[in-house]
Amino acid sequence: MKNLKKMKRIYSLLICTFLILGIVICAGGSRVQAARQYDHIYDGANLLTASEKSELEALAVSASEEANADISIVTVLDMGGKSAMDFADDWYDAYGYGVGDDRAGIMLLLCMSTRDYWMTTCGAAYEKFSSSDLDRIGSDMVEYLSYGDYAGGFEVFIKDARNELVPRTYGPLSALGCLLGGFVTAGLPVRAMKGKNKSVKRQYGAANYVKKGSMNVSRRADHFMYNTHTTVRIESEHHEGGGGGGGGHVSSSGTFHGGGGGKF
């Protein structure tokens, strides 16, 4: 009887253990499956029409697949007192943005109450965007945002981000075509200029340019006077750190981000 009770206790402990393990595994699986909670275009500030949002969503999905990184946009009315950088980083981390184990991606945040924009980068995308890259993308985009063309500005952001993330490849035929095009482009003007100067002939001496009787050279001599030596220092380019990033920092959740932004 005692053995039976002991066996029941053991079975009960085993069942409880498996139940706890099952709950933990299921909970972990649900976090992975529900990692991304929003579309690529989250328009909380209602800046886009339904058709604009649909078109931008399709463009962002296609660009993200091509780049193997998340390219997304978030618009909000306010940031609850946070800075644009902190809000963007926290949103990216909390709502499961990013592709792969390193959560690679770039997300644009637009806040209407403060007129701030911020582009947060993460994972492999951090290495792809330097500060100058983010400044250029921001400048391209702000030209549209400042005039209220939000759809146009968002389209520029998605395309510029994709172009930075996707490696540029040129096949042999493409390279040959560029080379031939360069020769043709440079050759035509030169040929035209050459045709206009058919009357010009090469002269091998200066005598033809001297008026007869105007110069009488009695003696000739060569004297070495001096030489000039010029030294030019060539600066080598040196990069600190990893070569990308746009201001690396750690978010409140402990994730490493880069990024850049400004006003619009």
What does this structure look like?
It is built from seven helices and six strands; from the N terminus they run αβαβαββααααββ. It is an alpha/beta fold. The chain has a domain at 41-166 and 246-263: Diaminopimelate Epimerase, Chain A, domain 1. α2 (50-67) links the parallel β1 (41-43) and β2. The longest helix is centred in the first third of the chain and has 32 residues, at 2-33. It is elongated and about 125 Å long. The N and C termini lie far apart (80 Å). 26% of the residues are buried. The model is unreliable at 16-34 and 226-244 (pLDDT under 50).
List keywords for this structure.
7 helices, six-stranded mixed beta sheet, 264 residues, alpha/beta, Diaminopimelate Epimerase, Chain A, domain 1
Query: Per CATH, which architecture of one domain?
Result: Roll
CATH topology of one domain: Diaminopimelate Epimerase, Chain A, domain 1
**Based on DSSP secondary structure assignment, what is the total number of beta strands?**
6
Q: Rounded to an integer, what's the Rg over CA atoms?
A: 34 Å
Query: From the helix content, strand content and strand pairing, which structural class follows?
Result: alpha/beta
Helix content: 40-55%
**Could you tell me the mean pLDDT?**
76
Supply the number of helical segments.
Answer: 7
Please outline the major beta sheet.
Answer: 6 strands, mixed
CA-based shape: elongated
What are the secondary-structure elements, in order, as H or E?
Answer: HEHEHEEHHHHEE
- The proportion of strand residues reads 5-15%
Low-confidence stretches: 16-34, 226-244
* CATH top-level class of one domain: Alpha Beta
Order of the strands making up the biggest sheet: 1-2-3-4-6-5
C-alpha end-to-end distance: 80 Å
